Amino acid sequence: VFDIWFGQAQDLHTVLKKVLADALFVSPLVAFPLFFTLREALNGKGLLSGLRCWKNAAVPTMRAYWLIWPLFHFLNFRFTPACLRIAAVAMMSFFYLVLFSWQANRSRVS
Fold first, then answer.
1. Which of 40, 61, 103, 109 fits 50 for a cystine, CB–CB 3.0-4.6 Å?
2. Separation between Cα atoms, residue 64 and residue 68, nearest integer Å
3. 101 Cβ contact list (under 8 Å, min separation 6)
4. Residue 77 in contact with residue 18, Cβ under 8 Å?
5. For residues 101 and 95, what is the distance between their CA atoms, to the nearest angstrom?
């Protein structure tokens, strides 16, 4: 979608527009609210429960997101060929989930 909105160029200006669009619009206003809403709805708690859940989790969720993903997206949009970007995101997602799973469960092992 970002290639359609902003073009396929890998220059600094285009890359910054893509990173900012993701970090300030798509993730906090579309992706995460949709995730929390659907998760709660599928667990039988309803759509409004999902929005309340997102409201309570928004700040810590976005803090964790902004620590890693904008830099990754910058490097990905700037240096990764378009045909390999999805694979790069998948790899980074894997390591991101491993890191946070390890961190969340670290106290249980100790």
1. 40
2. 7
3. none
4. yes
5. 10
Place of tokens 């390890």: 102
For the chain, how long is the longest CA-to-CA vector? 49
The single-letter code of the amino acid at 104 is A
- Compute the distance between CA of residue 35 and CA of residue 45 in angstroms, rounded to an integer: 14
The residue type at 26:
V
Contact (Cβ atoms closer than 8 angstroms) between residue 62 and residue 32: yes
72 CB neighbour count, 10 Å cutoff: 16
Residue 83: partners with Cβ closer than 8 Å, 6 or more residues away: none
pLDDT in tens, 29-68: 999 999 989 989 999 998 889 889 899 888 888 998 999 9
Q: Each residue of 9-27: pLDDT tens digit?
A: 899 999 999 999 999 999 9
Rg (CA), the chain: 16
> 36: buried, middle or exposed (CB in 10 Å: 19+, 13-18, 0-12)?
buried
